[in-house]
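TA notes. Do not distribute before section.
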Amino acid sequence: MHVARDIPVKYKIHHKTIYRYTEPVRRSVHELRLAPRSGPLQSVQYWTLSAPGNLSEARDGFGNIVHNFTMAGPARTIAIVATGEVEVRIDPAPTGQAGAEAGEGGHGAFQDLPEAGESRVSPLYFLSGTPLTQAPADMQAFAAPYLAAGHEVPALLALADGIAERVQYRANTTDVGTSAVEAFRLGSGVCQDQAQVMVAACRALGIPARYVSGYFYDAAAASLASHAWADICLDADRGLWCSIDVTHRCITDGRHVRLAVGRDYASAAPIRGILEGGAGETMEVDIEITPLA
């Protein structure tokens, strides 16, 4: 899909997840990061969530919209549906002082600062590793030459290209518990793994980086609709970031809709839950993304 610069792209998104169980769920508690928020890269026109329980809404320390619900069973199915429209802003210019100095970050830089009255962690919080984003010596040695002269956008794109070559995209070779180092040494994985390797490598070299979950529109590859990429901090003081899709080796563009950010997959997962009962779980996911005029 060719995306013209500075022309907004709007999508209607329908995301349905159904869990089925051979043994009924007696009780469950769920945490959802399934509601995108408006920001420098997108504007949410409307968004609705439905689930088998009363939804409460809050913001986490990363700025994500988080919903929680508790379900009292017994139940053999749990269906969670998200629907809405999002307009993506193509190549937005940073604002204020960051905009005046955006040349340091180059093409693709954007400013992401807390809204008035919002509490959010510092970008420096994304310097620390997690069990899923550790980078031992061999990963650091792989990444270091790409960023030896700095971490401007061209260098970050070169690193993303190197990671995409090293961790080849292959479905069903990893799972949600696979760490960055496991995928790196295996040499294959999916978007989640490639993004976590990028995040881990940048953090190990002193650059704040965060994991992003979201949607990717490609009419010819519906299986990629659920997607992940990485935000790399170009300047922590000014809240200047660059969002890079390792899988597609590009700065994010009009094909990308953001859902949540976190330190790794676990802290940005669209759905997390704790169950009593509920053996024999299977999951069915259906995501439809329709471009709007």
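Switch to the second chain here.
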Amino acid sequence: MKKLIFGSAAVAAMALTAPAQAAVISFDGLSGGNGSVFTGPYVEDGFTVSAGRGDIFEGQIFGNPAPSLVVGSVFGGGSIGSVQVVGGVFNFNSFDLVTQNGTGDYQVDGFLNGSSVFSLMGSLSPSGFQTIGGLAGNIDQLNFTLTANGTSVNLDNIDVSAAVPEPATWAFMILGFGAIGGALRRRKANVKVSYA
């Protein structure tokens, strides 16, 4: 019985110290060429990216061989496009955007179980890739809507990580392990002896 109690405590302690699984959706695995239409779904590190409304393209811009997702007229598309990211419950840490030959606008919406968690809007000026960070946790869906006021807006390096439970959740889990261990400790074995 004591081994079980100590085993439960050890599992809880290891869970507290385990780092959250992090991923950067870099689109490096896209197989189309520069200007290919992106339809998705594209899966990277357990996260799935799908095209929403508008025209989304794969692009290698400014001589960069690593692809990104592109919205805009640079490849003959419209000025507005959207993509969706899903992958369990996760934290949304940052993303990179760049606009070419003009400004661009973005809106990022996060959802959990279909309910809105946050909405972030902003504008870009043409100054190379910009990292936008410090965003939100505990979401299960992320929507990007990009508007190219110039020839393109490019999305890359979506930084996400597995959500870490709140401290209160950990406390209840540890108390639960303790209660189970205590119940097992107090449980008496029923021994039945029969004589022939």
